[in-house]
């Protein structure tokens, strides 16, 4: 029998829960799946976009308000006045940019996690996955406002998820295959490669075992003939 380390490789995950469990597991090279990396990248990008979206208007508004409210103040020179206005704008940029940044990053991360999880569990990518993810995320962000806020978030999230999902699916199809199809293909190719390597090692071990048996039988046969 083959030693335990040469056991037959496990086939690709067949159930939805098995595919979901792989989402947070590293491979042999200690790398996370592409879906997990994409979730982290999209959350970071969403955070940057949210910071710019919330910070830039706050920067210009605070700068303008500072200039309008400091007409009677005395400054050492023009550069001092400009620097003071910029510092006021920068404080607002950091303050309001952060408020938008973490909210957008959290929304994008939850939306992508739910939509990716649904696609893995169902083993297919559909508009319904993105619509459900958007509805769940929107309702989660507005649930603190009561039933009316929950319903509003549900509608907003669904309206966001459908076009966003359609755009993502269109981009994936232009690339030739969806992310789910790519993942299934890579799983199948990796399993076939491991299976071929396992069969090759098993064949080598079987050949070595036969050679060892023949080597041991040789002296025993000669000893029997001499006796």
Task: Report what the structure shows.
The chain is an all-alpha fold. The protein has 2 domains: 34-176, no CATH class; 178-212. The chain is built from 6 helices and no strands. The protein has helices at 16-21, 34-69, 78-122, 127-142, 146-174, 179-226. Helix 2 (34-69) runs antiparallel to helix 3, helix 3 (78-122) crosses helix 4 (127-142) and helix 4 (127-142) runs antiparallel to helix 5. The longest helix is centred in the last third of the chain and has 48 residues, at 179-226. The chain is elongated, with a radius of gyration of 31 Å. The relative contact order is 0.10. The mean pLDDT is 81.
Keywords:
single chain; 227 residues; mainly alpha; 2 domains; 6 helices; elongated; Complex I assembly factor TIMMDC1, mitochondrial; membrane; transmembrane; TIMMDC1; transmembrane helix
Structural class: mainly alpha
| Count of DSSP H/I helices | 6
- Percent of residues in helical segments? over 70%
Shape: elongated
Can you give the mean pLDDT? 81
Oligomer: single chain
Distance between the termini: 34 Å
Instruction: Please indicate the count of domains.
Output: 2
Please write the string of helix (H) and strand (E) elements: HHHHHH
């Amino acid at each position: 029998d083959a030693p335990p380390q040469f056991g037959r490789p496990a086939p690709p995950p067949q159930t939805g829960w098995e595919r979901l469990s792989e989402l947070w597991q590293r491979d042999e090279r200690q790398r996370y799946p592409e879906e997990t990396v994409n979730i982290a990248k999209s959350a970071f990008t969403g955070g940057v976009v949210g910071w710019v979206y919330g910070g830039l208007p706050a920067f210009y508004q605070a700068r303008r308000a500072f200039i309008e409210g400091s007409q009677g103040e005395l400054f050492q020179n023009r550069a001092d006045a400009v620097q003071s206005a910029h510092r006021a704008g920068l404080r607002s940029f950091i303050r309001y940019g952060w408020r938008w940044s973490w909210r957008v990053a959290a929304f994008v991360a939850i939306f992508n996690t739910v939509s990716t999880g649904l696609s893995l569990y169902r083993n297919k990518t559909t508009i319904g996955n993105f619509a459900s993810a958007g509805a769940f995320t929107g309702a989660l962000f507005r649930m603190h406002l009561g039933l009316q806020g929950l319903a509003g978030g549900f509608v907003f999230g669904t309206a966001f998820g459908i076009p966003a999902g359609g755009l993502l699916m269109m981009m994936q199809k232009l690339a030739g295959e969806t992310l789910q199809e790519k993942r299934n293909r890579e799983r199948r190719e990796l399993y076939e490669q491991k299976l071929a390597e396992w069969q090759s090692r098993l064949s080598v071990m079987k050949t070595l075992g036969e050679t060892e048996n023949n080597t041991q039988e040789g002296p025993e046969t000669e000893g029997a003939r001499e006796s």
